[in-house]
Amino acid sequence: MKKIAILGAMTVAGLSAGAVSASTLEDVKARGKLNCGVTTGLVGFAAPNANGEWEGFDVGVCRAVAAAVLGDPTAVEFVPTTGKTRFTALASGEIDLLARNTTWTFSRDVDLKFEFVGINYYDGQGFMVPKELGVSSAKELDGATVCIQTGTTTELNLADFFRANNISYEPVPIETNAEAQPLYLEGACDVYTTDASGLAATRAAFENPGDHVVLPEIISKEPLGPLVRHGDNDWADINRWVLNALIAAEELGVTSANVAEMSASAGNNPEINRLLGTEGTLGEMLGLEADWAKNAIMAGGNYGELFEKNIGENTPIGLARGLNAQWTEGGLLYSPPFR
Amino acid sequence: MSTLSDPPSGSFQLSMLINDTRYRSYTFQFVALVLLVAAMAYLGWNLVQNLTAAGLNISYQFLGEPAGYDINQTLISYTSQSTHWRASLVGVLNTLLVAFLGCIMATIIGVVVGVLRLSNNWIVRKLTSFYVEIFRNVPVLIWILIIMAVFVAVLPQPRDFRGDNPEASMVLDAFAFTGRGFYSPAPIFGPGSGVVIAVFLASIVGIFAFRKHARKALFERGQLIPTFWPSVALFFIPAILAFFIMGRPIGLDYPELKGFNFQGGIFMRNSLIALWFALSIYTAAFIAENVRAGILAVSKGQTEAAASLGLRPNRIMNLVVLPQALRVIIPPLISHYLNLTKNSSLAIAVGYMDLTGTLGGITLNQTGRAIECVVLLMLFYLTISLSISALMNVYNNSVKLQER
């Protein structure tokens, strides 16, 4: 009987140590740190700067969630993941949130049991070639050697694109963006393909970005967004609404500069009041403090600020807002109402 | 009173399991076994529970679904519409290819270096020991990466072969050495080429038969028949004669620069070459030490006795030392072959699509079936390692000391 009790206790311990933790929010609060999965280094999206601090567009999402949950945007443990390791890291509970330009697909959402909490960048797969090759369309790439990051949706899109156009190619699988760069620059492959935003970021890191062109074809839809594990809806809600708060803040004109002032007392706009916690109990419903959204916006600014600071047109990466503009300006960003 | 005179009865008592040395070891082994099985069962059960709780299940259905990705080096026909199972097979063959090539090259380099390490020449001895120490003491992954990086950086790219005054040109108009790999002419087999191949194979069998005959003559009658030049002649002459008699049925397909790459011919990718070379020189450093140890294990008296019979040094090595040294060399050699095969799973570092790259890489990633894929991977490597081990043990039995 005693032995059975011991075995039973071991089992319970084993189970609770496993992937099915009771509440991610409690875990994060108890730990005092958010474990956030990011890329191993993609300038503009997530890369350590000269001081070793992670910065970038995806890093901004991590910091906003940490600020909303813990009140401290620096309370983040960044876990670099490759295209191959990211899902295992999330499924095993090593990270609480994966913000690593990951494409939202049916099978990842349904079959891999993840929960995409929204879209923070509407992207599509493109091709980059050296200018000297004189290629102007992806359909001229018959017989080309293509460097591709393995374990990504781009691998499947590429196969589909070349098959649909009945042209051949030679794939060179690469583990990370950093490994692909020297191979491409040395000419071991003619073409580098990944999401167009990633191409822009990679090109910006080259010595002579002008020697390389991104071809006009965008061969796929790549809605990139942060994701969490299935099964903890409260945690998914928190992440979803932090992202929405950043998007809504831009739409409502709340910026990192004026958020402190606006949240000091209730203003005229009820939606801003509800968002910033000066009215209603939205924070409480999420299980967070009333100033959760204020902290999230203070962390790195609203969506527009994050975009402009990390990957916008005034940065070396130089991405236009395009599809990622607010819906009021012809883009696809559309936050559900805070009500 | 009778009870006193009775010797201890042979009846078995439970306490004897602990106190009697005859049974004690069995008891402990049994307890350890039970604990081990319980631990494994607990881990397995825990896994199943956790998977169920996470809403996942173990299923191999994905193996029958289209893979959706392309593989560069395929030894069997494969398209992106083939199944994941087929993709795994492509990976298996790629693993076996690099392991096979690697074992052969590692053995050749290893034996040569191992013999040279015992050379009387100071420079040769030091150079080879330098090689052994350098390659043995740096991780093989680093070697793979270095060799690939040098390969890509040093050799010209196909685009350098283009233009009126190209930076690089083909060797003999038939071979192209580029950073993407080596291109060489490929044979085209026309009608009647079967006869040429048959003659060629027959002449190889003939070479073996001839050498066996020569060996027999040497051992039984002490008659020394030269074997080298007759072997060379047997290798080339019948096949060449057949080639011309059949009206030159075998042609050559030369690689040609078309578009982005060379087309036609045989293409050996940079990833295969880098991986093959790195695995070979790394493992060869270990094999060299085995060979040296094996040779040193043969008593010096054997060499001196052979020398006093008037044998020349290379004959002493071939007829006296090596046959005895092989008995010492083969068993560790088996384990180096296994290591090389297992090390080939580092292939993805240079983008070589071995089994770890296809089944354990892309398939695992695209389907998310991590446990299923890893179990299959383990089964494969286990099977291949045990097979190599079994084959080499057969060979080992054939060279080991025959006790009479």
Protein architecture, described:
The complex is a heterodimer of chains A (339) and B (404). Chain A is α/β, with parallel strands linked by helices and 339 residues long. Chain A has two domains: 23-122 and 224-329, D-Maltodextrin-Binding Protein, domain 2 (3-Layer(aba) Sandwich), CATH 3.40.190.10; 125-220, 3-Layer(aba) Sandwich (D-Maltodextrin-Binding Protein, domain 2). In chain A, 40% of the residues lie in helices and 17% in strands. Chain A is built from 14 helices and 14 strands. Chain A has helices spanning 2-17, 24-31, 57-70, 86-91, 106-110, 153-164, 177-186, 196-204, 233-252, 259-264, 270-276, 282-286, 292-300, 303-310, and strands at 34-39, 47-48, 54-55, 76-81, 97-98, 114-116, 121-123, 125-130, 144-149, 169-174, 191-195, 212-214, 222-224, 227-229. A five-stranded mixed β-sheet of chain A has the order 10-9-11-8-12. Chain A has a three-stranded parallel β-sheet with strand order 4-1-5. In chain A, strand 2 and strand 3 (54-55) form a beta hairpin. Chain A is globular, with a radius of gyration of 22 Å. Chain A starts with a helix and ends in a 29-residue tail after the last helix. Residues 1-20 of chain A have low confidence and may be disordered. Chain B is mainly alpha-helical and 404 residues long. Helices cover 65% and strands 6% of the residues of chain B. Chain B is built from 13 helices and seven strands. In chain B, the strands form three sheets. In chain B, strands 1-2-7 form a three-stranded antiparallel β-sheet. In chain B, helix 12 runs antiparallel to helix 13 (370-399). Chain B starts with a helix and ends in a 5-residue tail after the last helix. The model of chain B has no long low-confidence stretch (mean pLDDT 86). The interface between A and B is large, with 50 and 44 residues.
Task: Reconstruct the topology from this structure.
The complex is a heterodimer of chains A (339) and B (404).
Chain A: H1 2-17, H2 24-31, E1 34-39, E2 47-48, E3 54-55, H3 57-70, E4 76-81, H4 86-91, E5 97-98, H5 106-110, E6 114-116, E7 121-123, E8 125-130, E9 144-149, H6 153-164, E10 169-174, H7 177-186, E11 191-195, H8 196-204, E12 212-214, E13 222-224, E14 227-229, H9 233-252, H10 259-264, H11 270-276, H12 282-286, H13 292-300, H14 303-310
Parallel strand pairs in A: 1-4, 1-5, 9-10, 9-11
Antiparallel strand pairs in A: 2-3, 6-14, 7-13, 8-11, 8-12
Chain B: H1 2-5, H2 16-19, H3 21-53, H4 84-116, H5 122-136, H6 140-154, E1 176-178, E2 181-184, E3 186-189, H7 193-221, H8 228-245, E4 250-253, E5 256-258, E6 261-263, E7 266-269, H9 270-297, H10 300-308, H11 313-343, H12 355-367, H13 370-399
Antiparallel strand pairs in B: 1-2, 2-7, 3-4, 5-6
Helix pairs in contact in B: 4-9, 4-12, 5-9, 6-9, 7-8, 9-11, 10-11, 11-13, 12-13
